[in-house]
Design a protein that fits this description.
Distance between the termini: 28 Å
Largest sheet: none
Low-confidence stretches: none
Helix content: over 70%
Number of domains: 1
Oligomer: single chain
Mean pLDDT: 87
Radius of gyration: 16 Å
Strand content: under 5%
Structural class: mainly alpha
Shape: globular
Length: 246
Amino acid sequence: MLSGYELIIALFMVWLGATVMGSVGFGMGLVVSPVLLLLVEPQMVVVVVNAEIGLLTMLVLARNWRHVNLKAALWMSIGGVAAAPIGVLLLGSASPGTLRIAVSMVVLALAGLMVFDIQLPGVRRRFAGPVFGFLSSLSVTALSIGGPLAAIYALAQGWPPRTVRASLALYFLTYEITAFALYAWTGLIHRGTLANVAVLAPGLALGFGLGTFLATRMDQRAFRRVALTVIIGGSLVLMVREVARF
């Protein structure tokens, strides 16, 4: 269980990650996971971060549920639920460093297209929702990152900020519940995991409050700019960190 200076660092990172996710609807894993990996074992990081994301999405959805694009969120959720079992299996068997680099490169390539206002091929077709939902869920359940893949899909739809946050929250919550059940079934959740989730919850609540306040101060253009900054900055930091470890 986290304690002492490790708990203080973890609480600060959860607060920061919750602030980011509370304001733009994603990005907590990108902020929290790289630091927590220095404090506890990788499998626990993935499970704890996903549990905190699940709790945060409940708060975001409770505040913004009227703005959900239900059809799009459900299409993404179909792909997300299908990917969750595969992600849980990868968590116990794959090389996380290699996978994180691969995900970061894909995210950066897609974000680069959006920066230059290049329309992603097929991103508004019906099949795109399940595809992006599948890839994002696979990355998050196995590595605790991947939310930017879903965010790129949502941003490409041209939705208002509250619709992006609400629709992503419903999608994240759907597959997080599935993933958490699978974590429990495969023995990845134990008393220490739940204790760490509980002691980090105050940072989550404070970050959500600040993130919600910041969200009300952003128009659509500012929201898109901040979201792309989180996607690109977080992915670059993660990729550089993993490359340096090889």
